[in-house]
Amino acid sequence: MLHTAICEDNDIQANLIRIMLEKYNSKCPDTKIVAHCFSNGTDLLESMNAGLSFDLFLLDIRLPDIDGIALAKKIRAKNDKAIIVYVTQYTNYAFDAFRVSAAQYLQKPVREICLFPVLDKVVADLTQIKRSHFMLSTRDGLISIPFSNIVCAELSNRRLHVYLENGETLISKSLQISFSKSIAPLLEDQRFLHIHQAFVVNLAHIIEQRNSSFVTKNDLAIPISRNRYPDAKRKYIAYRK
Known about the structure:
Layout: E1 2-7, H1 11-27, E2 33-38, H2 41-49, E3 56-59, H3 68-78, E4 83-88, H4 94-99, E5 104-107, H5 112-132, E6 133-138, E7 141-146, E8 150-156, E9 159-164, E10 169-171, H6 179-182, H7 184-187, E11 192-196, E12 199-202, E13 206-210, E14 213-216, E15 221-223, H8 229-240
Parallel strand pairs: 1-2, 1-3, 3-4, 4-5
Antiparallel strand pairs: 6-7, 8-9, 8-12, 9-10, 11-12, 13-14, 14-15
């Protein structure tokens, strides 16, 4: 699913872009694009502060409250992995756009022949990122964490605590979904095991099994629940072979 923010103060232009995204959905049914429209940058940023996260931003340059370049800088401060594409009638901001790492700079009126190839690349890039990175929504914004850096993740006080190889711990915002759903992207990688109601661990970081716990390289003891113990032990042994 590709969550997309359209920031455009012209209702007609915003609707045209939204219709093109719907057509792209029909063309590529495996890619579900969910579009959110904003008429100004303030509303967009407030939605991000409230917990919404976006994979793709389609921004105009001239907005009523902020220019698109300044808006991109604020977006980058919250989500440095976001893909930003400008859709504008102004040609003299292209250099500034690439200074904020914009993926593309499209001129209005944008056409499918120009937008669809951009969406193809965006989908491919995001698919690759999501296969190897875990996206964690924190108070400081959306953080992309390589799977290989994650030792384990713990549910505590409705927040996800992600323990990293370097000893750092990242803490999510309060979860609005279950722990199982929040760690589902990790469990798609065979290195991760859901070994306890509140823990998932990366087999690559385990140095030994000690009684009913796995001990990691940075000396964390991760408990294994009784009902998950046989499966966890079997998979750990198979991984070590």
